[in-house]
Amino acid sequence: MRFEDHCSWIVAQTELLVADLPGTSLALPVPSCPGWTLGMLLRHIGGGHRWAADVVRTRATGFLPDGIIRDVAGDDTGAVPAGWLLDGAHELATALTEAGPDEPVWTPFELGGMPFWARRFAHETLMHRADATLAAGTPFEVATDVAVDALDEWMELDAHPIHFDLDPAKKSILGPGRTVALLDDELPRGWFVDLTGAVNTWRRGTGPAAVTVRAPLRQLLLMVYRRRTPDGLPVTGDEALLRHWLGHVAFG
To answer: Name one GO molecular function term (predicted).
Structure first.
């Protein structure tokens, strides 16, 4: 996907988020974010957009304080702050578009400058929209190209070797014969994860795997981002390996 697509998706996913929540109470608990209310989740989303916009606008050369993302307490008695959420999404998308994809900026672990921020917050917004729909009990729908790119991004981020330094316990996912395949019958290619080497790698495609999940793309997306468990999905092979692998990824 192009940088411009990711910028536009930040706004589009926020528009869908607002549309998913008509008349919803901000006091609702969010099952996929234990301890959070819907209001806290929405303050996290809007704060994240504004924090990232500051990173982009200032061409930050290092980490900026992110209390606006983490300090999510507030008043949950009002209506969904649709205007505030949309303003934050437009602020970030505009900052990114004005900067362009080639302008240097700090990212965690030197992950790719402005394109990283555009793509990360497109899918950060997407997956928090999923959190909101789980809280509100409304259907979660996602366009195929968006879901495919979100899964690709997840695979790319998860394959970064820095994770083994940050969480040495993650090395327990590696071992002989450990491979995972994620398939949707509507797609020509799935995702194949190889855990047999010194680090995990992945590719688009398929092959004989120790465990295979064959499910609709939306369900695969929710599973790998840990918004649902594999329970009820068609899993063949070593389900314990699948659950162990999923237990050592967490972001977005």
So the answer is: metal ion binding
Chosen domain end from 141, 174, 200: 141
In a domain, 252, yes or no: no
The two three-digit tokens of residue 109, written as one number:
């672990």
Evaluate whether residue 96 is within a structural domain: yes
Rounded Cα distance, 5 and 113, in Å: 16
123 plus 203 within the same structural domain = no
CATH number of domain containing 114: 1.20.120
Tens digits of residue pLDDT in 174-213: 999 999 999 999 999 999 999 999 999 999 998 899 999 9
Question: Rounded CA gap, 183 and 213, in Å?
Answer: 6
Strand pairing category for 211-214 and 179-183: parallel
Mean pLDDT of the chain, nearest integer: 95
Q: Do 99 and 129 fall into the same domain?
A: yes
- Does 176 map to a domain? yes
> For 66-72, what is the mean pLDDT?
94
